[in-house]
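Hello forum,

I keep getting stuck at the same step: I have a sequence, I want structure tokens, and every attempt I make locally crashes halfway through. Rather than fight my setup again tonight, could one of you with a working pipeline run this one for me? It's a single chain of 589 residues.
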Amino acid sequence: MKQLFIFVSLLLICQISFSQLVTFPWNGTYGGTGTNRTYSTTVSGITMSAAINNSENVWQNSSPLYIASGTFPPGSSGCSAITATNQGVYLGTDWTTNTIKTITTTISFSSPVKGPVDFYLYDVNDDGFGSWLDKIVISGTNSATGSVNCYNVGTACVQTGGSVTGSGTATLTYNSGQSSACTCWGNNHVNVGTSSDCISSVTIRYQSGNTSYNNPFQYVIISNLTATIVSNTAPSGITGNTTICNGQSTTLTATGGTSTSQWFTGSCGGTLVGTGSSITVSPTTTATYYVQNAATACSAASACASTTVTVNPSPTAPTISASGPTTFCSGGSVTLTSSSVTGNTWSTGATTQSITVSTSGSYSVSLNSGGCSSTSATTTVTVNSNPAAPTITASGPTTFCSGSSVTLTSSSTSGNTWSTGATTQSITVNSSGTYTVSYVNSNGCTSATASQVVTVNPTPSTPTITASGPTTFCSGSSVTLTSSSVTGNTWSTGATTQSITVSTSGSYSVTVNSGGCSATSATITVTVNSNPAAPTITASGPTTFCSGSSVTLTSSSATGNTWSTGATTQSITVTSSGTYTLSYVDASG
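Reply #2:
Ran it on my machine without issues. Output:
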């Protein structure tokens, strides 16, 4: 009984590739000793390796060995020569104990091959025992998981009681049936898998069928294997910027690459750094990148294309120093200076070492050297707006006369500075001038200045009144009052002349007006006394009399009399004709 196990691997081919049908021959050198023998051969970059194990260390006729077309297998008699179809590895054995023994040949491919894996089996019983049974079991494994099916089973020379089972299934089994010496058991053709399969290994187990006999001589020939190998076409080159500055990146694109292309550093197949037709890399030192089209289920990875990315060092990032605070009020400025004397490019576009800025913003400077640049940390400048000028409110008219005052009040409750030096919200002023105030807000910014003009007009000198005579007199008289000011007079009588004549009692004053201001004199009192009633004259006798007589005339006023004769007595005696008059001055004069 013989068993052949064939394992294959499956994978969709999605790379740029080409296929070729190749033959893997057994005509090389066999390695190993004793029970375990080895063999390998490489065709078109794919290595077929075989591990051959004899469960009992008994090999006949120097096997395993290669049997070429037209030759006879060693130890066979009466059998036909091997044809080109059957030439391959000869495995001969003479198992020495009455137990089931096996020769297991495990064939593997360095990269899965595309099915079918095609070969022939030639098996001969040459032990002279017609009742000997042998069996061959064949199985296969694909490149993913699970097994593949075996097809194209030949049935020539199957003996009585023999069978072939499992065609199209994972395991194909040949049972030889009863045979006689030198009886051909079959020139059996086997296909493992189909063109849809990617096969990674095939196992052929040659096995005794019973334990009835000792020292049966058996051999099997496994022909050269044919299969289709799929080769990947390597990318033809790599495009992209290959000179960068430290800290920069570059995108490399494989010409002829695919979505499964593999990128490496160190060597082709070294450290995997990415997949796809393009990768973006940011090396810190000069590095070589390799790309290959990746292996598929039925193909090995392609050769690599490579390119070297040269990394030029970036200059040390400059630092920015400020000439003063970077937060200030509108109208101010600050000078920012790069630590590098040359090669500067500011975020404003300036290329000088220093820039003076007066607007808010984030400022940075880049240093360029050898095509590479580095950028400073940003410096933030904050320019606070100056507040609007305060308003000034006056407590009254701002034009007034000397001796008065006005209170000026700022609309800002705090932070005020007046032109007088005062820092209060309000000031009281009594002199002419322009008074200004500004204030500092919470950001420390000073407002524009508000102003208020105050005009203080001088008060004229107080006038004096000069009287032309006594200010006390009798009814019928008058007095002239004169102001010391030639102009601007307004008398208490309403007169606006320099002088007035008064004949009535009263208090008189004069006010002098100049520039809206006035001064009033002291009052002067004029007293006008009423004249007394006329006195009466009493005659002592008749006022008509003869010459030689007289009459005495007496005033009704005891005092203050003045007679027309000049007498000042109360009585006069007259002896001559005439009109005699009398007046008197009373106690008020």
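Confidence is low (pLDDT under 50) at residues 1-16, 126-132. If your local run keeps crashing, start a new thread with the error log.
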